[in-house]
Q: What sequence folds into this?
């Protein structure tokens, strides 16, 4: 909610409808941006004064095989509908983000990762094939064996090569609707790194929360949550725990007294540096008080979708909204870079209100954000007074990332520019991607505000105003 744009929105429900929109855009001399549920943090799906193609009406489940856990869906199917459709048969998506509301098409276009990236890789590692409609009107079926170059470029290609018409995914067999969760408090960023490395061989999921207000020897202190699947027979009532109603997040807080739908209103007064510092300190010390290794069980949905516990939580950041700065750093440099990032924001008087720490592994996709290392995601409250300073801080952090050989994640980005990531844009893989785009989309019909911001304008947008509605 920190950026916006006005454009023309079309909502097709069929492949023919998508083709018609491409034809209209070509006729009118405008561009098309693809949009799933609009859950990216920045301008990844906005296309100012051009066409936005909303794919949420293409939401059919086309095939489901509960024996081998393979499902074929249209791009507008959400992660929520996917897990609700399959979990009672004993299957769960290999990879989910922190919210259940993105579409599968959008998740594939950004090649999302979860709290298990170090073990399971990104979503693309579990996509078997897809049908991709190119702006030229040609449909390509892509897999690791067929049109492999396009397969590895469109997954993670942020919607710049074509429009997914269907995607076939493999899911993970689960023997219970519960996970075993073990929390651990860490007194510093270095200790968080050490605990992660120690737990990697035995964990199915690992995620860390960081108190970005803490300084000195406590800089980077936080809490880690490890989760593991239950083995066959370990859950005495799997038929019950796998039921959808036993996965759903509760509608209320405080013993049923407060509806979650109003919780964001109570959060809003807390979103200032003074009070949020107290909130973070309280959370950290409460975690220490409860003690490490306090093992408990939690549903898959309850552990995975933390962002959905408070509906419309982002409204608490109004009127300025929020941005998230997420960088991915090779393991050899990650401690140094993240330490400097936290110190930079503290010196600038712009502390992050939420820091999330994860471990990653490399993957074969062309525009991957993953590295053999770590990521740190930092949420910042945007105000009319701090916006300029916040973008300047992001540019400083960009330099650290580029110098360390790190990468960025377009689903979360709001601040990158050609100037700040010049060396990144010179990488051979980026050159290969742009060459493939020229082949698949010779008129550069597919564009978004994010694409133009980072990669520059395409040929088709020579005029700032496009008469879509003129006769």
A:
């Amino acid at each position: 909610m920190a950026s916006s744009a006005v454009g023309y929105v079309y909502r097709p429900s069929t492949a023919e409808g998508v083709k018609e929109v491409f034809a209209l855009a070509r006729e009118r001399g405008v561009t098309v941006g693809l949009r799933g549920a609009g859950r990216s943090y920045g301008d990844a799906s906005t296309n100012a004064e051009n066409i936005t193609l909303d794919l949420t009406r293409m939401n059919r489940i086309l095939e489901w095989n509960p024996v081998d856990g393979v499902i074929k869906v249209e791009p507008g199917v959400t992660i929520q509908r996917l897990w609700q459709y399959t979990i009672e048969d004993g299957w769960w998506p290999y990879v989910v983000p922190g919210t259940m509301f993105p579409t599968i098409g959008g998740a594939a276009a950004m090649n999302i990762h979860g709290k298990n990236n170090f073990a399971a890789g990104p979503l693309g590692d579990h996509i078997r094939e897809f049908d991709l409609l190119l702006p030229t009107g040609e449909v390509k079926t892509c897999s690791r064996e067929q049109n492999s170059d396009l397969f590895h470029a469109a997954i993670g290609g942020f919607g710049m090569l074509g429009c997914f018409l269907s995607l076939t995914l493999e899911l993970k067999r689960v023997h219970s609707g519960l996970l075993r969760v073990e929390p651990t408090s860490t007194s510093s960023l270095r200790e968080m790194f050490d605990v992660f490395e120690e737990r990697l061989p035995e964990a199915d999921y690992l995620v860390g929360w960081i108190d970005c207000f803490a300084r000195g020897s406590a800089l980077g202190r936080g809490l880690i949550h490890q989760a593991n699947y239950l083995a066959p027979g370990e859950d005495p009532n799997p038929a019950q725990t796998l039921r959808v109603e036993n996965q759903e997040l509760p509608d209320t807080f405080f013993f049923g007294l407060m509806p979650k739908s109003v919780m964001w209103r109570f959060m809003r007064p807390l979103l200032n540096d003074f009070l949020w510092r107290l909130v973070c300190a309280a959370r950290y010390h409460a975690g220490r008080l409860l003690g490490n290794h306090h093992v408990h069980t939690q549903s898959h949905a309850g552990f995975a979708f933390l962002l959905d516990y408070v509906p419309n939580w982002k409204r608490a950041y109004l009127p300025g909204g929020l941005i998230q700065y997420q960088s991915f750093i090779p393991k050899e440099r990650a401690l140094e870079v993240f330490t400097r990032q936290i110190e930079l924001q503290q010196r600038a008087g712009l502390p992050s209100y939420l820091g999330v720490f994860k471990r990653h592994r490399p993957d074969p996709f062309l525009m991957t954000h993953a590295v053999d290392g770590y990521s740190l995601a930092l949420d910042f409250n945007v105000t009319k007074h701090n916006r300029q300073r916040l973008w300047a801080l992001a540019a400083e952090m960009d330099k650290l990332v580029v110098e360390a050989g790190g990468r960025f994640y377009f689903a979360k980005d709001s601040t990158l520019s050609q100037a700040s990531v010049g060396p990144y844009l010179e990488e051979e893989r980026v050159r290969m991607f742009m060459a493939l785009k020229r082949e698949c989309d010779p008129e550069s019909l597919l564009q978004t505000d994010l694409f133009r911001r980072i990669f520059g304008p395409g040929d088709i947008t020579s005029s700032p105003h496009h008469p879509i509605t003129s006769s």
